[in-house]
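Minutes, structural biology subgroup

Action item carried over from last meeting: produce the structure token record for 5-oxoprolinase subunit A (Actinoalloteichus caeruleus DSM 43889). EB confirmed the sequence was re-checked against the source entry. Recorded below for completeness.
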Amino acid sequence: MERPRVDLNSDLGEGFGVWRLGDDTALLDVVSSANVACGFHAGDPSTMRRVCAAAADRGVTIGAQVSYRDLAGFGRRFVDVEPRELADEVVYQLAALDGFARIAGSRVRYVKPHGALYNAVVTHTGQAEALVAAVRDYDPDLAALGLPGSEWLRLAEEAGLRTVREAFADRAYRPDGSLVPRREPGAVVRDGDEVVHRGLRMVTEGVVRAVDGTDVAVRPASLCVHGDTPGAVALAVRVRDALRDAGVEVRAFG
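Output recorded by EB:
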């Protein structure tokens, strides 16, 4: 029987200037894929270059975490941007990060939308189409990372892009498989034991307990542990070790 495997990803490079968010270096010793901010919700050229270099040194796969142009809101506010403009802004972010990845001897391998854009393209067909068009035009070999059942993954698959199902060990789920919005209480799971339990169950059983107590199918190829939560590094280590102890190989999909 083939050994089960999963990618472990985290959002990195989310500082800006002298301000740092999370321990990028420590997390890069734990995860197999890094979703690197591209300057629109967080990140700046020096941060992008530093994180890409550190990821390349460790053999961690680099992904572009693209966002609305919303530094003030950390990309967590919906922006009703025209699809063509959104596509251009995604290409802009992709190209910027890919430049630093190539300087480091690597390259961008996948795209993951951030924050409000991630949530929007679950159901917003126009913005999902724009995201797909940007990826297809820039590099159709890039994978699309996102929520199962989203318009983003559906349209990406129709366009011939490789799609990768993602789940969140530290986020609460609704019964329909969508994420509980961050503005609602309990949207982020902060109990370490619960995060580890949920992550392990997602990968080994293909389900997660929703807020109403029902089990929702997820079956992730990539599992995310956010890098901006308190104790993120130790929590990511616990999730990785629990997966390995359960016989799951932690390996990048890219």
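Discussion: The helical segments are 24-28, 45-58, 83-103, 115-123, 125-138, 151-158, 192-205, 232-245.
Next step: EB to file the record with the rest of the batch.
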